[in-house]
Amino acid sequence: MKILAMVLAGGNGTRLYPLTAEHAKPALPFAAGYRIIDFVLGNLVNSGIPSIYVLVQYKPRSLIEHIRTAWVPWSSGQEPAISVVLPGTGCGSTPFSGTADAIYQNLHLIKRNKPDLVAVFAADHVYRMDVRQMARFHLERGAEVTIAGARVPIAQGSAFGIMAVGPAGKLHEFLEKPGRPAPTPDDADRTFASMGNYLFNPQVLVELLEECIRNGDTDFGHHIMPILPRRRRVFAYDFARNTVPGVQPYEERGYWRDIGTVDAYKAAQRDVLGPLPRFSLLNPKWPIRGDAYRVRRPDAPAASRLEALMKAVQP
């Protein structure tokens, strides 16, 4: 089974301002010298995904430099192949106007690689995930689209796409950032949130995007996902089912954090600290790898300003 991955790394991260004043959100430093994007890249690499395209747009310089320095030399001449894609290099000549438009402008990559599945993953989350397990779930259910989901406190649910699912994971309803998220059937204090990680059958993805663009729509969460339950065979994959080797008993099972705000950013960094962290960065059986980036970037003044801002938000 050949999976092609497209990583959405082009958002401007307005809720993380001023940290994102000069840097893309996925390029922001995380504890111990990592960058936020290192987590999704580590998951894809450890899952054996052979082709990974990182779609960038907003303030891309430091993100591109990090990938070039920390990831491309490591993968040079072997699988996986990690490539950076800028707007205007595909079928479109304009900036990406949304997540769906970003993939649409690069459909030529799907046609060129001829994968069995296309993984469209977000670049701004902290977690460990074996993507192959999600792919098996997708194939076993004969799904056309699968959305990874995690349980989050219901008070935070309005920040996510919320899913209502049946016993076998069949998606019944998808609501993007509802004002009153519905609780899960087994826990009134939690709701089932989309992680922004999707698996598509390639032809289904092409058809959905072509229709989406014809209608003037541009975003997965706002425009495509809400209509899918009545149009396609869609399942929600419960991230709590996913297991990776090397996780310690003291770690939080199914740890996943969306780094969407300064408060979430600070909280996630606290979670990796101490002798018994909720999420350990040290796992040789499922390494993150991106900590190889240690050199001073060429944009030294911008880097210094970012470091000053980092000190202001450190826990």
Structural overview:
- By secondary structure, the chain is α/β, with parallel strands linked by helices.
- It has a domain at 3-130 and 255-313: Spore Coat Polysaccharide Biosynthesis Protein SpsA, Chain A.
- Helices cover 29% and strands 21% of the residues.
- The strands form three sheets. The chain has a seven-stranded mixed β-sheet. A two-stranded antiparallel sheet has the order 5-11. A two-stranded antiparallel ribbon has the order 7-8.
- Helix 2 (61-75) links the parallel strand 2 (51-56) and strand 3 (81-85).
- The longest helix is centred in the N-terminal third of the chain and has 15 residues, at 61-75.
- The protein is globular.
- The termini are far apart.
- The relative contact order is 0.18.
